[in-house]
Amino acid sequence: MDLDRGKPVWPQLADELRRRIDAGTYAPGSRFPAVVDLATEFDVAASTVQKAVASLRTEGRLRTVLGQGSFVVDQEA
Fold it and tell me: Where is the HTH gntR-type domain (predicted)?
């Protein structure tokens, strides 16, 4: 994925993560990748990934369990 560094990066990242969730790359109920892993993959700061993850959580696509991580929410349920 090529990020347009001339625009805010976190919404672009959120779009890509949303696409992956919709495509089934991250299956419902599965643990979502860690912030540090996604930051490394996309070559962005962890805070950028945190903003993208927070937006997906607000949309109801992810749920976070303290001490366990984030999990993909089953949109069918």
Answer: 7-75
Give the residue from 73, 67, 66, 75 showing the smallest Cα distance to 30. 73
Determine contact, residues 35/50, Cβ cutoff 8 Å: yes
Which tokens belong to 19? Answer: 């696409």
Q: Beta-carbon neighbour count of residue 13 at 10 Å? A: 23
pLDDT at residue 21 in the model: 97
- Domains in the chain, CATH or no CATH each: 9-72 (1.10.10.10)
